[in-house]
Write a structure and sequence with these properties.
The complex is a heterotrimer. By secondary structure, chain A is mainly α. Chain A contains 13 helices and two strands; from the N terminus they run ααββααααααααααα. Helix content of chain A is 75%, strand content 2%. By secondary structure, chain B is mainly α. Classes of the chains: A mainly alpha, B mainly alpha, C alpha/beta. Chains in contact: A-B, A-C, B-C. Chains A and B meet through helix 2, helix 4, helix 5, helix 6 and helix 8 of A and helix 1, helix 3, helix 4, helix 5 and helix 6 of B.
Chain lengths: 291, 255, 340
């Protein structure tokens, strides 16, 4: 056993743990607890909350309106994740297969557009999609359509905007995990007569699964709370979770209810993620065994 | 395959860059509200250079994005290692908390952090902004790096340990090189998130340290000024040139 | 850590010297011309720090979280003045310190949101009424009722503000925009549901853009937005409906625990000078409450009814006041409206 000397306490291991634990406790756990506490208190118009226990906020969540809001947000987030994966996976795959020297600059080129203001980028999308915008002007000039297509303020515009905003969050982790994939395995499989579909499902997919999971989570979770892009491009006609929480805090001044929605969302997502990880693991091991 | 690869990559880059191209073209548009083309002009660039508040906010934004992304990447990489490799009390619940931060609505995070800072007696400004930005960037670094570490063969680390390598040496000589692309990706994501945050920053910063995204979102009420297009164009061209220059400089060196 | 702090202070000298002779303004980005700020500093030696917010709601939350301190002069809109006053967040204005108060127009003073203007001084004012693109709509629009016409299916814009949208519904039912009766709010909601098929979007940012983009032909909009839009597309006009428009005033208020109240008063008085007020309204595009300044304006701006409505239109209109807990009811119906 180690003697409890200072040099033994200040090991690299302990420093790493201490650093991340302290930060997480102070800036993540404590604020989350504050929100959890607020969610079981009573609203007060003058001081935001009064220290009286109440489960009213959670009871109010049973209203079908909130199910609708939740469903819409979930649908947007799930669809966006799927679209990002469909667009991002081939991209990350091809990127990982280009010459090493080009990979870094090409990867940087993916993220540079996102260093300009998101509002300004969304406005640029509006200029492209609007009734007298670039797409409609071209289509009309080419004689394909007579009246302008209504793209702006529809779900299509929302999806274009969401994918545009979140795509790098899929591409970067996917690339980071595909980049280390040993392509000799792929070649060997082809040499042994495997069909492309088999190569993909048996080799590429299982080996890139951690990247897919990371990417899916990093797109899905932020998408659940995002509302600026859907509001600007979709016309703010349907309320999303992000709007709901913001309105409860800022417009209605109902901090307990806003907190309750946030806590409920967190718990639900954690539950979903636990299920997701378990199934992914099972698929992963079963695929591995088959292979 | 090569043709498919090239055309697919080009197509996605087009999707990413067409809006930026539109933005650049419109920064030269004489029309004030950027809806129709009314001839070319450089006046927005001239106005931009007179606009000290906007320029100051840009410098502040870049400062906080650079520092917070570096701090977040450092802590996040160590964090991913700690969560993956070390066993300590509260490891699993803490790791779950990291995920919850990613979906925590901005407004909730902004309000709870500002309450915490007020309780701690911190003066709102650069430091509080930095703490908040590191906090919301951290999960993205941890998740990216963790995904990469978990794909590795643990036998390599065990072998190094058998040969007498200490934890720091394992980190320095095995884990860091192996995770380098993920660390870089985590840094890029952090920098991007920090540079564009509005709501959390609004709550945790003080009057002396205003950042660019807030200035821009606050223009919405009167209509975003064309100077902002000019500013975004300049920032974009500057980063693009830096990347190209860095690429060729590195190439020179390796020769 | 100490070294780091010293280093940071060297990096940001502004933060280190902040406690000099300063006034901390809290306002929308560029809602005050730079020239005015520079001239104020030049004449008084008081440095101006200009901080920004992106909505009245978030400004209110922040001021309240900071216990009405941190900022010296804030520019809330009508009912936020009322709300902040009711919650004890404001410090009374010391009128003895304001030499230029007489320049203000009486029609905009002593309103229900702040009787006698004990806590607020008007800065700029405007209205929410109907914008029409006359390229597409040839018939004269005279009433809020016209928004419901079936031929405008999918062509109407509403602002993304529950007080304004429900204000419209309440008004159409013959109630005040500030009505707090849940039964009346429900009636307004039912009327608004009928309007939904016509609504193309709720504009969460500048409402002039969808007009300029030909996405909508008519709708709820602020007068300053139409004034600016008409510079590019003169076909867009502004109509004060016969039921009356909703009027609002952005006011200057001093938070209760502001540190530099004297400087804040000095700034208010500076802005009240006719020459400065004239400059502000020319630059920003909204109307000035300063009658002396208005009389000095160029006739084409002064006589533009979009910016300066006829007295009768102002008298017909209503100013928003704080509705207290009725906001919870409004928010509930707002959620219902947006999940249909």
């Amino acid at each position: 056993m180690n003697k409890p000397g200072l040099s033994h306490i200040l090991t690299f291991r302990n420093t790493a743990i201490a650093l991340v634990v302290t930060w997480t406790l102070l800036f993540i756990v404590v604020p989350t607890l504050m929100i959890a506490v607020v969610s079981v208190l009573q609203r007060d118009a003058r001081t935001f909350v009064t220290p009286a226990f109440s489960l009213e906020s959670y009871m109010a969540l049973a209203d079908p309106v909130y199910l609708k809001i939740f469903g819409k947000s979930f649908a947007y987030a799930a669809m966006t994740t799927l679209l990002c994966l469909l667009v991002g996976f081939p991209f990350a795959f091809f990127l990982a297969r280009t010459r090493k020297r080009w990979q870094k600059p090409l990867l940087l080129l993916v993220i540079i557009p996102f260093w300009t203001s998101s509002l300004i980028r969304t406005y640029a999308l509006i200029i492209i999609l609007k009734a007298n915008g670039i797409i409609n002007t071209w289509l009309r000039a080419a004689g394909i359509i007579k009246l302008p297509l209504e793209i702006l303020y529809t779900d299509i515009a929302v999806y274009i905007g969401l994918v545009y905003t979140l795509l790098p969050f899929m591409i970067l982790p996917l690339y980071a995990s595909l980049e280390k994939l040993d392509f000799r395995l792929v070649e060997a499989a082809f040499d042994l007569g495997a069909r492309p579909v088999q190569v993909f499902t048996r080799i590429i997919l299982p080996l890139s699964l951690p990247g897919i999971m990371a990417g899916a989570i990093m797109v899905f979770l932020p998408a659940m709370g995002l509302f600026y892009v859907p509001d600007l491009l979709g016309g703010a006609k349907s309320m999303l979770l992000g709007n709901l929480i913001k309105n409860q805090f800022l417009v209605a001044g109902n901090w307990p209810f806003g907190s309750a929605v946030s806590v409920f969302l967190t718990m639900l997502m954690l539950g979903l993620m636990a299920i997701y990880f378990k199934t992914m693991k099972r698929i992963n091991t079963s695929v591995m065994e088959e292979a | 395959m090569a043709l498919l690869k090239r055309s697919y990559l080009t197509l996605v880059y087009l999707f990413l860059y067409i809006p930026i191209l539109v933005l650049i073209v419109y920064s030269f548009n004489a029309a004030k509200y950027a809806t129709v083309w009314k001839g070319a002009t450089l006046k927005w660039y001239a106005k931009l250079f007179e606009n000290e508040m906007l320029m100051d906010a840009m410098v502040n934004s870049i400062t906080v994005a650079v520092t917070s992304s570096i701090v977040a990447t450092a802590i996040g990489t160590l964090g991913a290692l700690a969560f993956y490799r070390y066993r300590f009390t509260g490891r699993k619940p803490l790791y779950a908390m990291v995920y919850t931060t990613m979906m925590s609505p901005d407004i909730v995070m902004g309000i709870s952090l500002v309450c915490l800072f007020v309780i701690l007696g911190l003066k709102l400004g650069f430091i509080t902004l930095l703490l908040a930005h590191v906090t919301f960037c951290l999960p993205f670094v941890i998740v990216t790096v963790y995904a990469r570490i978990s794909g590795f063969d643990p036998a390599v680390i065990d072998a190094a340990k058998d040969l007498g390598a200490g934890e720091f040496q394992i980190f320095r000589h095995i884990i860091l090189p192996m995770t380098a692309p993920a660390v870089a990706a985590g840094w890029l994501l952090s920098f991007t998130l920090s540079l564009d945050d509005v709501i959390v920053s609004f709550f945790v910063t003080g009057p002396e340290f205003e950042i660019l995204p807030l200035k821009i979102y606050s223009m919405v009420r009167l209509g975003v000024k064309p100077e902002v297009n000019a500013l975004c164009t300049l920032m974009f061209i500057f980063t693009l040139l830096s990347v190209i220059a860095a690429h060729y400089l590195v190439k020179e060196k390796t020769k | 850590m100490k070294k780091l702090i010293v280093f940071l202070m060297l990096l940001f000298p502004a933060a280190a010297m902040a406690d000099g002779n300063t006034v901390y303004l809290y306002n929308w980005t560029e809602y005050m011309p730079d020239q005015v700020l520079a001239q104020f500093t030049k004449e008084t030696g008081i440095k101006v720090t200009y901080a920004t917010y992106e909505s009245n709601e978030s400004m209110y939350a922040k001021v309240k979280l900071l216990d009405a301190g941190g900022y010296d002069l804030v520019f809330p809109s009508t009912y936020f003045v009322h709300k902040m006053k009711n919650e004890g967040l404001l410090s009374p204005i010391d009128k003895a310190k304001l030499k230029n108060l007489d320049h203000l127009d009486d029609t905009l003073l002593n309103k229900p949101y702040d009787p006698d203007n004990t806590y607020s001084v008007p800065y700029l004012w405007g209205s929410t009424a109907i914008g029409v693109n006359t390229t597409y709509i040839k018939d004269a629009i005279t009433s809020w009722q016209d928004l419901w016409k079936p031929e405008f299916k999918n062509r109407v814009l509403l602002t993304d503000d529950l007080r304004e949208v429900f204000g419209l519904g309440l008004k159409m039912k013959g109630y005040s925009v500030n009505d707090t009766d849940p039964a009346h709010i429900k009636e307004a909601y039912e009327l608004l549901v009928q309007l939904l098929p016509n609504v193309r979007l709720f504009a969460s940012d500048s409402p002039k853009q969808p007009f300029l983009n030909h996405e909508v032909f008519l709708g709820m909009i602020w007068n300053g937005e139409v004034f600016m839009a008409a510079e590019e597309m003169p076909e867009i006009t502004y109509i004060y409906p016969e039921e009356g428009a909703i009027f609002w005033v952005d006011s200057m208020v001093i938070p209760k625990n502001a540190k530099n109240k004297d400087n804040a008063h000095a700034f208010i008085d500076f802005v009240l000078q006719p020459a400065i007020a004239k400059l502000i309204c020319e630059e920003i595009g909204y109307a000035s409450p300063n009658k002396t300044a208005v009389s000095m304006l160029a006739p084409e701006l002064r006589d533009n009814p979009t910016v300066y409505p006829a007295r009768a239109d102002v008298e017909k209109g209503e100013f928003q006041t704080d509705v207290g807990d009725a906001l919870l009811v409004l928010e509930e119906y707002w959620e219902k409206l947006k999940t249909r």
